[in-house]
Amino acid sequence: MDDKRFEYLVNRIEQLERTVSALMPSHPSDIVDTKTLRRPSDQNPSQKQPLASPTPKPSVNPAQFKPPPPPLKPRHKLPDNMRTGEFWLNKFGIGLILFGVAFGFKYSVDQGWLTPTIRIMMGLLLGGGLFAIGWRVSKDRNRFSQVLYGGAIADLYITGFAAFQLFGLVSHTVAFAFMVLVTIVALFISIKQNSSMLTLIGTVGGLGTPFLLYTNTGNLPGLVTYTCLLLAGIGIIYLYKGWRSVLTVSIFGGLAVIMIGIYGSLPDSYLEGMRDRWALQAGLLFFWLLFWIVPVLREMLWKKNPTAWPLASLGFNAQKLPDEFRRLVNSQPFILPVTIPLVAFANSMAIWNIADNSWGWVALGGAMIYGMATLYLNRDRDFDNLRYVHLLAGTLFLTLALTFLLEGNSLFVALVSEAAILHLTANRLSNRSFSFGGHILFGY
Asked: Which of 31, 228, 252, 355 reaches 20 to 30 Å from 181, CA-CA?
């Protein structure tokens, strides 16, 4: 045994002695004196060492050993910015200001002191004042300025609504132009302040403008055009900022506007309102392309250059939100390519009353589009997940096409063949989505 090996063993025994003595009381006779240890080369082979009699092990009381306490569950702590008094004073302050203004407004109206014109002027002055203060303090107190901007935008939306709907002081064109201007300013300020919350306020206010200024004489082409332009601007903001919360609100808001036009404004007669039907169909096509291409393009840009295109996020502190919700929102690039075209296809069927085989050819065209997208994504290994998602979307459209175009035994053979292909694809790619789809087709 060499010297290094012997010294290593001596050090290990000393370390074990220290560990044992710290854990349990030991008898002095049980302690091994490492100084008396001899290397085999130092011992005389002619001298036989007597075997030491085994010493009795000290009895140990099990009660002395207590199990370690269970680990404490991590507490959900508030973010650092929410622990300061300034954060809560900002929120309560703007709320008290709006409440006081509303109370004083109502009292003055009940007393007959304020005419409608003066009320609207007071609303404009309040909104402009909040904007001016927010702009002044934006460099030193960014969060406080965002609160002021939010209050100003809400006040101006309410003022525009009251001027047209409640008092009739301005025409629909003037009120609509004013509300659009407020939306543009809100989106501009949100980009300058890098605030997703201001973008959300501008998005909700912009999508709600046609309904806040609603009259009995609806104009569906104008509504669809305005909604598409607004959604295009929000899509550009998402492309550069990556705020998933803004994308989620714009998807649901834009779809709600289009569905209100489809199910609430179309005449019962099929031939009537043909212009409105084409306008809604164009809106659905734009909705599908925008919310399919933009999230996928944003994900591809992040994959190729994470420095220039940071990872998309909700846009605000989401620690208090459920984990399931955060995972769902963060999966937008992989959910939207499948769900958005199906939603657009189903609502298109509500617009037009045509034969099933025509819808079959439309679905087949959708399958070809997603097939070409899959081939394009196949050029780069970084886009494997996106490629699988587009392949799944194309498979769904192919299934719809077969359902509409075929019937009887032909349909049965086609679906079974597609199910078998899905199973083979799932085994090759180790992807559960295709295997699940194959099981559904076999069951169908």
From this structure: 252
**DSSP bridge partners of 313:** 243
User: How is residue 319 annotated by DSSP?
Assistant: T
Given a contact cutoff of 8 angstroms between Cβ atoms, the answer to whether 217 and 167 are in contact is no
Number of Cβ within 10 Å of residue 273's Cβ equals: 16
Interacting residues of 96 by C-beta distance below 8 A, sequence separation 6+: none
Per-residue model confidence as pLDDT tens digits over 313-342: 887 766 666 777 777 777 888 889 989 999
Q: What is the pLDDT of residue 425?
A: 55
DSSP character string of 31-93: S--GGG---GGGS-TTSPPPPPPPPPPPP--GGG-PPPPPPPPPP-PPPGGGSSHHHHHHHHH
Pairwise CA distance, residues 229 & 311, whole Å: 26
Between CA 105 and CA 93 the distance in angstroms is 18
β partners of residue 243: 313
Model pTM score: 0.71
